Amino acid sequence: MDDPQLTDDEVVSSVLGGRDRDFEILVRRYSQRIIHFVARMTEDGDEARAIAQDVFLKIFEHLPYYRRENNFSAFIFKIARNMTLNWLKRRKRTVFFSRLLGHELDRLPLRRDPPRLSPMEQGEREQALTRQLRRLPVEQRLALVLKVYLEFSYKQIAGVTGWSVPKIETLISRAKARLRKGIRLQESGNEPVVEAREK
Amino acid sequence: MNCRMTIRRLSAFQDKELAAPQVRQVELHLRECGACRAEWDALRDLEQRLLGLPPAAVDPFFSTRIMAGLRPRPAGKNRLLQAAAFAALFITVFLAGFFLQKSALDRQDAERLPAVTFTSVLLERQDLGLLTVQEDTLRQFTRKRP
Questions:
Q1: Residues B92, B115: contact at Cβ < 8 Å?
Q2: Which of A94, A167, B57, B89 has a CA between 20 and 30 Å from the CA of residue A153?
């Protein structure tokens, strides 16, 4: 189905020309990365797949607004970013109200995909790291996920987020420092109880 | 380059975002400074741990589900054709209405009786013996207006 000879812009032209079926080429080309991105941002596999599905439906709706500048990746990740941040905001509100009502929703174990077959220690380390990732302020997490998991350059991240390159550099650097500190504290058993305030 | 500067640039160095001269400076410093090398190793370890997290599983029917959920959009060419068809239909209906109305009016005109003057009616009735019309009366009605 995926024709590697076709550029993203050519596929978009084809879809806009009436061949809706060609949209599947874009879905296949980007689904893995979009799901990966959303999953790392939300740390919830099921939600990530649901959000990713909505992201693609939105991309299809907004295709006529895409300006063909060979930057389709930035276009779709902008949509993915917005939808993910909206989801995170909604979850934050839910957590806030659940706390008001006396429930500790965000203390529930994370819903995640079944871990790979690995030693117990590896599983615990992954859990610890996931928890630390989740505690990062949203802007730091977004910049770090785009860099580490999607291998975007700072310039590409700027294209998706609208931030300046120095800001992105600072956000990523701080995210790494924060993660290292959190992991160190967690492994030494001095994990802070207070959650980081999400920006 | 001193330690403070190196530490500040390590993250960008790791992300391959430094310019070539800065890269050489950082590499040189790392070769000489054990403390900064330890920082660098810690950063690399963190990246390895981050990359070691299992990715979210992708449902094999993901794209099929998305394609099934798409609402069909009229294609560009088809949209143009549709617009042209609507325009043609509108013009046809408009012209048909115009000509139908015109022909109806023409028919009405054709069927209309010739104009009848009051004088001719009087004369007709006189011919039939129904009434007598005085000359003065006739002159009064046939008198030309100024």
A1: no
A2: B57
Amino acid at B88: A
Which range of residues forms the domain containing residue A1?
1-113
Count of structural domains, chain A: 2
ipTM: 0.73
**Chain B residues within 8 A of A36 when measuring between CB atoms:** 55-56
Cβ contact, residue pair B67, A149, below 8 Å: no
Do the Cβ atoms of A18 and B66 come within 8 Å? no
Domain boundaries, position B20: 3-51
**Within 10 A of A37 (CB to CB), how many other CB atoms are there?**
28
Q: Average pLDDT, whole number, for chain A?
A: 82
Among the partner-chain residues A49, A116, A129, the one whose CB lies closest to the CB of B56 is A49
82-121 in chain B: CB under 8 A from chain A: none
Residues A91 and A181 reside in one and the same domain: no
**What would the mean pLDDT of A11-16 be, rounded to a whole number?**
90
Percent with pLDDT over 70 in chain B: 88
